[in-house]
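Run log // design_07
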């Protein structure tokens, strides 16, 4: 998402109104919509600008509030903050507490935020008996941000056990510093690191650019504008990235679980499958699996998850996503890297800023205005 501000909200320049004309990005042909799963949104809690979340210990879901607090959600509702860094961050522009993640054993908890100087920071805490140990806090990685927008900030552990970190191109508009295609910066990239393998972290030996002296070893893939939300399919391990567009096209990128990394998603030479401001398509461009234009209400894609829960059988295996401005929940059926079906779930989550997947595979929808909904059968 392009967390752009429009009077009361986070999301910096969310001024452009756009559409969700559902087209596949790899071809101009349209796919026939399958019968949409029948779902309902059940409101389970209200938070203060909920912006991100992660499965937590004991079957909980932990919710990050943009101003700097983290609160656990269980069957009884939203609990008291278990972490508060509100004095260390700011909600100016697209800044704030932007991402949270546990490692696979719930032994360490990670937060991604922008500090008071606007620098992106990833910190680690040890966890014992499901509780954060504040005295163990350490900084894993930092990245200077030249502008207050396109910070990215999402973090997740992949099926391989490594920590993936998404950073936008640094901000302003049109990638003025050319960061998307520059392999000598972490901006405009998806990173892959081993936070426990070294001090402050180690580089996995099979990262795609470790033998390139002109590239940063942390980079997994590049050519991204603002990969606000990404996820791994819990069933296949495939990677999906919702990358927010500049002014015309929103895109969803896909990579198979067998990928060795190194994908170039094209920004800022390309916006989706379209040359950007006269740019030339890179020879190694990996086009999005799906894109939609801005002729209607959409303006900032919010990437979601492939549904692997049990509550809505007809939804299983479909990628659920939305748009911050439009709020409608939609799905893609992706087979062998191609979209074979699209659908509109017929429900609206408000200012959808993020999705959260529980350990059981059920999905929660975060509305920046405060509402937290769970996707249930209708």
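design_07 sequence
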């Amino acid at each position: 998402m392009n967390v752009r501000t429009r009077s009361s909200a986070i999301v910096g320049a969310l001024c452009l109104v756009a559409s969700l004309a559902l087209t596949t990005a790899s071809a101009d042909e349209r796919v026939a919509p399958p019968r949409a799963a029948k779902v309902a949104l059940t409101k389970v809690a209200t938070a203060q600008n909920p912006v991100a979340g992660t499965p937590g210990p004991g079957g909980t879901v932990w919710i990050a509030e943009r101003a700097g607090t983290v609160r656990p959600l269980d069957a009884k509702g939203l609990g008291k903050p278990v972490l508060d860094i509100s004095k260390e961050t700011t909600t100016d522009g697209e800044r704030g507490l932007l991402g949270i993640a546990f490692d696979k054993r719930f032994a360490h908890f990670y937060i991604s935020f922008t500090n008071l100087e606007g620098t992106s920071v990833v910190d680690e805490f040890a966890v014992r008996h499901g509780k954060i140990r504040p005295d163990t806090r350490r900084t894993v990685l930092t990245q200077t941000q030249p502008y207050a927008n396109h910070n990215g900030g999402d973090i997740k552990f992949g099926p391989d056990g490594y920590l993936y970190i998404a950073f936008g191109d640094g901000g302003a508009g049109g990638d003025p510093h050319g960061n998307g295609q520059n392999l000598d910066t972490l901006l405009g990239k998806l990173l892959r690191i081993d936070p426990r393998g070294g001090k402050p972290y180690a580089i996995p030996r099979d990262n795609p650019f470790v033998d390139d002296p002109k590239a940063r070893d942390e980079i997994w893939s590049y050519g991204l504008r603002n990969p606000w939300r990404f996820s791994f399919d819990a069933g296949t391990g495939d990677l999906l990235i919702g990358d927010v567009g500049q002014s015309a096209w929103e895109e969803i990128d896909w990579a198979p679980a067998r990928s060795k990394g190194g994908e170039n998603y094209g920004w800022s030479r390309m916006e989706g499958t379209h040359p950007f401001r006269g740019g030339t398509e890179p020879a190694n461009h990996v086009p999005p699996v799906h894109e939609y234009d801005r002729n209607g209400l959409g303006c900032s894609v919010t990437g979601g998850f492939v549904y692997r829960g049990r509550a809505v059988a007809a939804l299983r295996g479909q990628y659920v996503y939305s748009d911050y401005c439009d709020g409608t929940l939609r799905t893609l059926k992706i087979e062998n890297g191609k979209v074979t079906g699209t659908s509109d779930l017929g429900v609206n989550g408000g200012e959808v800023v993020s999705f959260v997947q529980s350990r059981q595979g059920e999905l929660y929808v975060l509305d920046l205005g405060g509402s937290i909904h769970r996707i249930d059968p209708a």
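The chain has no helices and 28 strands.
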